[in-house]
Specification:
The protein is α+β, with helices and mostly antiparallel strands and about 575 residues long. It folds into 4 domains: about 55 residues; about 230 residues, Beta-lactamase (3-Layer(aba) Sandwich), CATH 3.40.710; about 100 residues, Lipocalin, CATH 2.40.128; about 90 residues, Lipocalin (Beta Barrel), CATH 2.40.128.50. About 25% of the residues lie in helices and about 30% in strands. The protein has an 8-stranded antiparallel β-barrel. It has an 8-stranded antiparallel barrel with strand order 24-25-26-27-28-29-30-31. Strand 26 and strand 27 form a beta hairpin. The N terminus is likely disordered.
Length: about 575
Amino acid sequence: MGFQERVFNLSFAYVQFTLKTPAMRRLLLLLLFPIHVFAQNLQIEKFIDSLVGTSTKPNAPGSMILVVQDGKELIKKAYGLANLELKVPLRTDHAFAIGSVTKQFTAFAILQLVQNGKLSLSDDIRKYIPFYDTHGKVITIENLLTHTSGISGNLTQLRQENVVDAHADNFLRYVMNFPLDFEPGTDYSYSNNGYRIAAIIVERVSGQTYADYVTEHLFAPAGMNQSFVTDDLHTMDNVVSSYIRGLNGTWRNASTLRPEWNWAKGAGNIISTLDDMFKWESALISGKIVSQELLERAQTSYKLKDGSYTRYGYGLNVMMHENFRVVHHNGGIYGYRNAFVYVPEKKIYLQFVNLGAGDILSIPKKILARMLQVPTPVASEKYLGNLSDYEGNYEQHYVDGVVTTRAKIPVYSTVMIKSDSLYFLERLGSPVLLRPAGKDRFITGRSEDGFYQFTRDKKDKVISVRLIPFLYGSGNSSVENKRIVVSHHAAPQSVNVNTDVLKKYAGTYYRPELASYLFIELQGNKLFANGLGTPQKIELVPVADNKFIRKGNDEFSYSFTPDVNGIMKITVSGFTQADYKKIAD
């Protein structure tokens, strides 16, 4: 117990023994209340230090956090470095890329135009983009904002890099050639391209560029004078560096990997600060941006045609927990990672930033659970049922919030028993320990992540599973992933490949349409791969001179071929298919 808490408790005891009337007791308690609040804040700060401080090494890419309650700043701290090369300490006034948290600005730009009578959420997008092929369906502006349009978010067959930064019409004509993933309004699938289209509509309706509109109509009324919409020409004043972890464990400055920003317009190209982001939230709450009615609508989960809820409003994830909502969104781009969380009914605001592609999921959840006094899920000591009831394969409807309907391989999860314990293996992931937590319910290895809830039929046979996030999360958790029978095939035989050939494959590869990087490293006579900010090495097993499979998952392949100029290219085939072009040895 801290000193301030002991002072408060002793003082409270003294009051109880010496003051006879309730009025006198209340008066003294009011005088002592600031001490109690200070002690509470001190405990929260120590708790945050134990989470953020211990996970951010002094000479590593830094982290920042801001916690506000009832409009009062509780914690604002920075840890680690803003730039590793220059050993510059991170400050709380430094600017950073907010990534996909940008989407709420695009959403509220649209809502402002709605409020001003310039457009309607129910408008068909062809009203503003007449040539757009919607494949016989009606796609509304609301569908764009709620990720329910069916427009693919990740282009899997892009071959010409100039499509990325080309004129808007060229981009639109390219995107519309892909079939819809589903009928608009019937499912949820996270789509960056939907928000890029929404930004184009903002420009066409307002007559301003996206950057000018956001600056004038969103940043200015909110008092956000340290924020800007960036592009490939913008000077990045006061912006901290971001880093990704290489295969050898060293940090690599993301700016050396030729970051581009135009592709992310409306979906992830805003730079801001901790203070400015809180000014933005304050402006929303006070009605400076849109009416309270439109704000409530933005912070309400969208209802699909089948009656289920997506847990996403307009540019915001929304989840109900007992008697309060948790409004949140994560952002990640070029090593910048941040999480924004707001609890309207409790007036709690939290912004967590990490500059090294670190964990932005569990830390905010732990802090919020502590402040809200919500107990984290607790595992049982032992499961009394039969673990073999759950063994088998299950459909995997979503991967990272994106529907799997267009996958080129079967996408499913496997539940298996290992050493008398149950494990959940996503087809493109790693095994996660499941710990029993009730009837047909298991919590994940990290208890703050959520539950896997299994469903049985009338004959008591397990037939499906769904993930229910703890406190908050993204995606439609009402989807039942059905148990299925999967036919397995024999894995291809590995072959020996000359080391000199392997050396040609090693290097840094880039995928422009998602600004995504892939690192291939040669260690001895083996190739390893990892993605941007992913420290886990994936061993690549050769099955031909130029084709490799992911160890433990032969449906995930890497094929190396030089282009007409001799520059090496990787075609990665798995959940989707994508090309990466070599940019450095």
